[in-house]
Amino acid sequence: ESYTVLLPAAGSGNRMGAGFNKLFLELDEKPILIHTLNVFEKDSACDGMILSVKEEERPIIERMLEQYSITKVKALVEGGAERQQSVAACIRAHQTDGIVLVHDAARPFIRQEVIVSLVDTASKYGAAIAGVLVKDTIKVALDGIVKETVDRSKLWTIQTPQAFRYGILKEASDKAEAEGFLGTDESMIVERIGVDVRMVESTYDNVKMTTKEDLLFGEVLLKHRRQ
Ligand code: CTP
Ligand code: MG
């Protein structure tokens, strides 16, 4: 089944500390943003992309799309102060039935097999998110004292893409907006409308470029995949 991907790209990259949007930083001489867009440009199941961007960055991004021959971008919409608002802007701009993926522009290493699995699961059940099982031992601590060790066999680190039938995501987004609810991912707003969200096992290398160390990991991953 085909899908449209919504890509929030309107962040500031504060934790990266570059002094500008981290998506413009380069890995192997190509902006992170372009690495991510190329995944979808090359996926024949992807019908189109909608990006949310900062208004002042629109010209830079338009130039990049042209320079790197990215052809599937249907719209660049204005992002908001919070990630959820940037995604909401993409959702409003789309207005078409079918499967939509929401994917952080800052995750360039998403694998094709995971995308396929998310799209299949969302078309069957309505909602599916990518994640990996937690590797570390997780404890709850209060005032510096360990209170509890959590059973990690049921704990997942959540990533993007997150895949939904458009109607489900739209309803969830409208409700969150009307009620002033701010979640940290799309799953949270969809869980609130009572839809079961399915876990799809992803890979540990689908890292988000968030801090300086992630760039080092990113360089290594690129080198490895080129081999
Ligand atoms: N994003 C967005 N609009 C916002 C905030 C974030 O579109 N108001 C996007 C980012 O551009 C990124 C994705 O959401 O592609 C994931 O967010 P994150 O990794 O937190 O990026 P930033 O918000 O840019 O970084 P930071 O939180 O360190 O400032
Ligand atoms: Mg952020």
From TrEMBL:
Database matches in PROSITE patterns: ISPD
Superkingdom of origin organism: Bacteria
The keyword Nucleotidyltransferase is assigned to this record: yes
Protein family (similarity comment): Belongs to the IspD/TarI cytidylyltransferase family. IspD subfamily.
EC numbers for this chain: 2.7.7.60
Pathway noted in the entry: Isoprenoid biosynthesis; isopentenyl diphosphate biosynthesis via DXP pathway; isopentenyl diphosphate from 1-deoxy-D-xylulose 5-phosphate: step 2/6
Keywords: Isoprene biosynthesis, Nucleotidyltransferase, Transferase
Pfam families on file: IspD
Statement: the UniProt record of this protein carries the keyword Aminoacyl-tRNA synthetase: no
GO molecular function: 2-C-methyl-D-erythritol 4-phosphate cytidylyltransferase activity
Species in which this protein is naturally found: Sporosarcina oncorhynchi
PANTHER family: 2-C-METHYL-D-ERYTHRITOL 4-PHOSPHATE CYTIDYLYLTRANSFERASE, CHLOROPLASTIC (PTHR32125:SF4)
Enzymatic reactions: 2-C-methyl-D-erythritol 4-phosphate + CTP + H(+) = 4-CDP-2-C-methyl-D-erythritol + diphosphate
SUPFAM superfamilies from the UniProt entry: Nucleotide-diphospho-sugar transferases
Site description Positions MEP for the nucleophilic attack, residues in chain: R152, K208
Site keyed Transition state stabilizer: positions: R15, K22
Function per UniProt: Catalyzes the formation of 4-diphosphocytidyl-2-C-methyl-D-erythritol from CTP and 2-C-methyl-D-erythritol 4-phosphate (MEP).
Protein name listed in UniProt: 2-C-methyl-D-erythritol 4-phosphate cytidylyltransferase
